[in-house]
Write a structure and sequence with these properties.
Keywords: Membrane, Transmembrane, Transmembrane helix. It holds the Pfam family DUF2393. This is DUF2393 domain-containing protein. The protein has 174 residues and is mostly beta strands. The protein has a domain of 114 residues: Immunoglobulin-like (Sandwich), CATH 2.60.40. The protein is 14% helix and 36% strand. The chain contains one helix and eight strands. The strands form two sheets. It has a five-stranded antiparallel sheet, with no helix packed on it. The protein has a three-stranded antiparallel sheet with strand order 4-3-8, with no helix packed on it. The protein is elongated. It starts with 20 loop residues before the first helix and ends with a strand.
């Protein structure tokens, strides 16, 4: 019994927990951001194998691609990735802020070549590992050049193991 003569329950009920409207708003914004990032990543991807050769971009003649080298690495799931490294220069009069290339892997059996259209990613650092960034993060000014790397998860089994043909098919300039 309490000092005033009323009985107090042995266990007091736990206070009701409420979630503030701010918490719900923050959670909703977080979900929207995640969905937006996923949508942008999905929409920006070009078709993996377009089949037909795309026309070169009008500015492509000002973007020589040189020093092509290739390598392979296995990933954690047992698959392998094929890397195409090179240098892209800008001999034109505009700054290159983005580009997509169509890469054509010839086949050894005479079947139609395998083509993929991918964005150009430039090398930010090489040590302790190769770190890539989009061209928009490090635009190429006229007269300048950058190392780049293209990554392919699925090169066809009948690829002739020769360096692929690389054609600039889309540019973003300023």
């Amino acid at each position: 019994m309490a000092a005033d003569g009323t009985q107090t329950p042995f266990l007091t009920p736990e206070p009701e927990r409420t979630v503030s409207p701010q918490t719900w708003i923050i959670a909703a914004v977080a979900v929207l951001v995640i969905v937006a990032v996923a949508a942008i990543a999905t929409l920006r991807r070009a078709p993996a194998n377009t089949g037909a050769a795309l026309a070169p971009d009008a500015y492509a003649a000002s973007l020589p691609i040189t020093n092509i080298s290739m390598s392979e690495a296995t990933n954690g799931t047992g698959g392998k990735a094929t890397y195409v490294d090179g240098v892209i220069g800008n001999t034109g009069t505009k700054t290159l802020t983005g580009a997509e290339v169509q890469v054509t892997f010839s086949t050894s059996d005479g079947t139609a070549p395998h083509r993929e259209t991918v964005p150009v990613a430039v090398v930010r650092t090489r040590v302790p590992y190769v770190d890539l960034q989009p061209l928009s993060a490090d635009p190429i000014k006229p007269g300048d050049h950058r190392d780049f790397r293209l990554i392919f998860e699925s090169v066809p089994a009948n690829w002739d193991v020769q360096p692929p043909a690389i054609q600039v098919v889309r540019t973003e300039l300023r």
